[in-house]
Amino acid sequence: MSQSMVSDRASQRAFFGVSALLFAASAAVTIVWCASMSAMGEMPMPGGWTMSMAWMRMCGQTWTGAAASFIGMWVAMMVAMMLPSFTPMLWRYRQAVGRTGETVETGLDRLTALVGAGYFFVWALLGVAAFALGVTLAALEMQLPALARAVPIASAVVVLIAGALQFTAWKAHHLACCRATPGRGCMLQALPADARTAWRHGLRLGLHCSTCCAGLTAILLAMGVMDLRVMVAVTAAITVERLAPVGERVARVIGAVVVVVGLVLIVRAMRTG
């Protein structure tokens, strides 16, 4: 076995080993965060549902501090949820940079980290938007009982729409880009080995990925951003549709399941409303 092959295998083992450690650490932080939020309890609301304390300030906490805490936890949660499907995309990037023929071994890890930073920067920005939206809606729901009573059916409708999105060409296009499927104009070609390209590539992946996951992320926000069961289900759906050999077909199957769940939730909300 040549020295080059040994080095490549060692690099591959190190890459996937670090990825596994990052996943374990982010998953542990997410579990601890969810447990701490659950220990604080939830606020009962008109309509028979409860509001998560994630949208509230703690005693003595400023809104800036609350936002920073939420975004930090949001990023940790996104790392845990997205890393299983993002790791193969990072590995394809390393291979694409290697195809340039440049000597980049010493800087390849740094470039890979920049791609990851750009990717999760997009998710962090979405966390800012999610916090602003969540806090605004929470304030309105506490002031307007009629709006609060409409939340269960509104959440169910969000789930139903998210399931329907799984069948669209828009979803198929962005899923193909995340999967780097040939023939869709998104296949990853050889890339220059420089920091600017790495950062921009990470941003591009983050935009495609967040757009592709818009419906599934909406389910997470609608059903309970602190609910570990919903997190696990959404993570599994995202991972399977990205990594399965027939991803588009899997996405449609997931969509059918989500539509059924949405309809069941609508019926339940109407009966209890």
UniProtKB/TrEMBL annotation:
Keyword NAD: no
A Pfam match: PpoB2
Coiled-coil residues: none
Chain ranges passing through the membrane: 66-91, 111-140, 146-165, 205-226, 250-270
Domain of life: Bacteria
Keywords recorded for this protein, A-Z: Membrane, Transmembrane, Transmembrane helix
Protein name according to UniProt: Putative transmembrane protein
